[in-house]
């Protein structure tokens, strides 16, 4: 169960012409206070390749605080719990977890247990309730999803390991059994620094990429998937993508919903149209404006919000970070045997072929796509 960062290159290391300025780690953990943990479950004998990814928005807060948020679904064939309240109240409390489709219930149970233990006074006094955000994508091609491998304890382990700093990518956590454009997909992350006025803000993404068909694949505007058609696995879209966007910019719930919508453009740059069978579900949150829970606050509250006329650079940053996150998930991939159907292989993205294609020395002609 290896969840450490690897020595593999990331998309930028391959010379891909990716725009924008990333943060120190080029990860969602570039947003202050955001921590990420994993529980990766792999056992070929049990046909197990799955896990849990945990994001803690306010890891450095000792008391529960609302996390301002907005949510958007491009295509709703999937699950993200807690979104009804996010859409009504504009905030959530607690962690975000991402797992496989049949693991949502167990992960929700484990995340609830973690919240109760993390904030004992909050839950002991009064009638506090826990509503963690748990999202999923389907890993039934590479994992025996019906064996229900994921447990509540796995969610707790992922949350307990949440840390700041660099993040492992590819086959880690909930991304362990995921496929992207018929290559090995999974967990990917990226960030952007944005200057607005005299302040620098961070916008960052973490994705669980499990979507797309090979012929759709575009990388930095190049339709590579139309030529790289060997070792295909699927005839129709069967996957999904979860996108979590984080920022320290002071945005309110409506602006965060607008930011979440831009994830659709980010994944669209990779070529997907958002298939009928795909759950393309996005959440954006801000760690700005920390406040006590409304139940503990007075009758009036105040918070700072960025003027909407200045928000376009954040939208662009979100699009760029999402596009790069998906590429990072794929670049980190490796060849993996399938479970259903058996005896096939989900291939890794041909990284050296990609590097050669974008090499300034070789140029980028249509011939080199083949």
Descriptive account of the structure:
The protein has 370 residues and is of the alpha+beta class. The strands form 4 sheets. It has a 6-stranded mixed β-sheet, sandwiched between helices. Strands 1-2-5-6 form a 4-stranded mixed β-sheet. A two-stranded antiparallel ribbon has the order 7-8. Helix 5 links the parallel strand 11 and strand 12. The two termini are 36 Å apart.
How is the topology of this model organized?
Elements: E1 35-43, E2 48-56, E3 67-76, H1 83-89, E4 91-92, E5 96-100, H2 104-118, H3 120-124, E6 133-137, H4 152-160, E7 179-180, E8 183-184, E9 186-196, E10 199-210, E11 240-247, H5 253-268, E12 279-286, H6 312-331, E13 336-337, E14 345-346, H7 351-357
Parallel strand pairs: 5-6, 11-12
Antiparallel strand pairs: 1-2, 2-5, 3-4, 3-12, 7-8, 9-10, 10-11, 13-14
Number of strands: 14
The amount of beta strand, in percent, is 15-25%
* Structural Rg: 20 Å
How many helical elements? 7
Structural class: alpha+beta
Mean pLDDT across all amino acids: 94
Low-pLDDT windows of residues: 361-370
- Sheet with the most strands: spatial strand order: 4-3-12-11-10-9
Quaternary organisation: single chain
Principal-axes shape call: globular
DSSP helix fraction: 10-25%
Terminal Cα separation, in Å?
36 Å
Q: Can you write the helix and strand succession as a string?
A: EEEHEEHHEHEEEEEHEHEEH
Report on the biggest sheet.
Answer: 6 strands, mixed
